[in-house]
């Protein structure tokens, strides 16, 4: 089984990279991509945890935003981990997250809820990328909500009055950075409308022109009709179709390998990178 979208506690997951590898092995996953938000910091630990029977795809989920403020997540896979321009762009995005978090907290405080930046940072381990799931965990400890899912459903989704945008590259810019680093670009859960506004099908033309390699079709946040439309879009434009869990660990319903990528689609995607960077024993 091939799962090309997972997270560790180096961003907003709850498992360490080593725990993630062990759980993937137990679940029968043979190829797993670690795609923490705007970070490759967990790749070394994941690599050190590898055992026979599982391969690691280095990657990251890059936060993007369109001109009209729509959030887009771009999976970069198999890129050169030493590429300075891509690494610096992700670092800039991570740094901006702290200012954004403070503004979200201020809005929550204005609604009469007692939460502070120190409460949120207490949920953040060294080297992790700060994100809304850490705020969710702080809200759980305060007794405001009972789970991450409840936090996002009630308070932290993109349409919430508490939502604040943050710096991130345009989707086409992210694709260009990934491609320049020798990797492949796959747009993650593009039609997940419950997360907020989604890009139009027409927008895909610009992304395809920029070098988009694939679409994450099979994802729990896509309806059957959305999957059908994305499959047609992919076939019409010679794009690879992937499936993935978007696993985050505890607090989210997503299970490892609940959606997977077929071998033929993985081979097609892998062939588009400028080098074979799959890591295995």
From TrEMBL:
Signal peptide: none annotated. CDD domains: PHP_HisPPase_AMP. Residues 2-66 form the Polymerase/histidinol phosphatase N-terminal domain. Gene3D superfamilies: 1.10.150.650, Metal-dependent hydrolases. SMART domains: POLIIIAc (SM00481). InterPro entries: PHP_dom, PHP_domain, Pol/His_phosphatase_N, Pol/histidinol_Pase-like. GO terms for molecular function: 5'-3' DNA exonuclease activity; 5'-3' RNA exonuclease activity. This is Unannotated protein. It comes from freshwater metagenome.
């Amino acid at each position: 089984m091939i799962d090309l979208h997972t997270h560790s506690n180096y961003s907003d997951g709850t498992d360490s990279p080593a725990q993630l590898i062990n759980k993937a092995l137990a679940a029968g996953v043979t190829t797993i991509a670690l795609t923490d938000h705007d970070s490759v910091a967990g790749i070394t630990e994941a690599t050190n945890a590898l055992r026979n029977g599982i391969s690691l795809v280095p990657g990251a989920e890059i936060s993007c935003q369109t001109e009209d403020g729509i959030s887009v997540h771009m999976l970069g896979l198999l890129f050169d981990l030493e590429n300075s321009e891509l690494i610096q762009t992700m670092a800039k995005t991570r740094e901006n997250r702290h200012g954004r978090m403070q503004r979200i907290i201020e809005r929550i405080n204005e609604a009469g809820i007692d939460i502070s930046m120190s409460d949120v940072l207490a949920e953040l381990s060294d080297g992790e990328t700060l994100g809304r799931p850490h705020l969710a965990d702080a809200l759980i400890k305060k007794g405001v909500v009972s789970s991450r899912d409840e936090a996002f459903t009630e308070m932290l989704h993109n349409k919430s009055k508490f939502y604040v945008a943050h710096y991130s590259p345009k989707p086409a810019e992210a694709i260009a950075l990934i491609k320049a680093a020798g990797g492949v670009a796959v747009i993650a859960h593009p039609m997940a409308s419950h997360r907020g506004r989604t890009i139009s099908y027409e927008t895909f033309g610009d992304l395809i022109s920029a070098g988009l390699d694939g679409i994450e079709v099979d994802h729990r946040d896509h309806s059957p009709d959305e999957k059908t439309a994305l499959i047609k879009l992919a076939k019409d434009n010679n794009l690879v179709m992937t499936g993935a869990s978007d696993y985050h660990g505890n607090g989210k319903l997503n299970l490892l390998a609940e959606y997977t990528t077929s071998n033929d689609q993985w081979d097609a995607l892998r062939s588009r990178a400028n080098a074979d960077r799959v890591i295995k024993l």
